[in-house]
Amino acid sequence: MGVVSLKEIVDRAMRDRYGVPAINVVNDLTMESVLAAAVERRSPIIVQTSVKTVLSIGSEVLYAMWRAMTAGIEVPVSLHLDHCPDRAVITECLARGWNSVLFDASTLPVEENLRQTVEVVAEARRYGAHVEGEIEAITGVEDGIGSDEAAHRQTLDVSIHFIQTSGVDVFAPSIGNAHGVYSAAPHLDDKRVSDLVAATGVPIALHGGTGLTDAQFSDLIARGCAKVNVSTALKITYMTSNLAFLREAETKNKWDPPSLFRHVTADVTALAAGYADRFGSTGRAW
Q1: Which residue segment(s) compose the domain that 87 sits in?
Q2: Among 11, 16, 28, 82, which one carries the catalytic annotation?
Q3: Dmax over Cα atoms in the chain, in whole Å?
Q4: For the segment 145-184, what is each residue's pLDDT rounded down to a tens digit?
């Protein structure tokens, strides 16, 4: 199938009630590993890049990596810009070829957020791309964006009005979820997901996937969370895998970078494949 739109991936997932892993990558190795997991599991996958990753690597290099790694791929994949409050970066990535963006204007008043989101949706449409919207900050800091302050939630009516008026293709609500590692078991407002889906029919993005239980994932996916974000778990796996290999290399005094790359690739691929299994997207490629 190859590269497809975000909307095609999430609409199918919500219709058939499975979740698609939306995994933040940090470099070429992690991008290759996540895509390898998609092929291995015959699963659709959303590869996500943070603003920090775009700025550190560069959109041209990142997109060249994406084009090279997805050439001839036979499972549905999409490239998404995660949590971006910067309109210039959104414009740059859409022009470069990203399939979708999350315009994160959650720090703005809802009315201004809505006004700008309408503009972003119109801009994305000119490129055949799609938009995820957000009006409530997800608690926690991710790649320098966000706050550890508890998120303020808007009313259900405000959220519904935003979704219907803005034209967003995916909506990311605050339901008690958080970025990073949970310090305690989260209490999730799962009914809010059901209410939003019932009122709008728009797929929901579940942020803060690292640390939730399989039961929580299954319940929220059944309610309409078609896109399930994972970032912290990949970073932890990537860095601890490097650390473990390098400690052993130091002990043995054997320094072979290709062996390190293979070791870390195997661990990151296993992580991504495990999420496809957990979210029910394994075998769902078309």
Answers
A1: 6-279
A2: 82
A3: 62
A4: 544 455 677 899 999 999 999 999 999 998 876 645 545 4
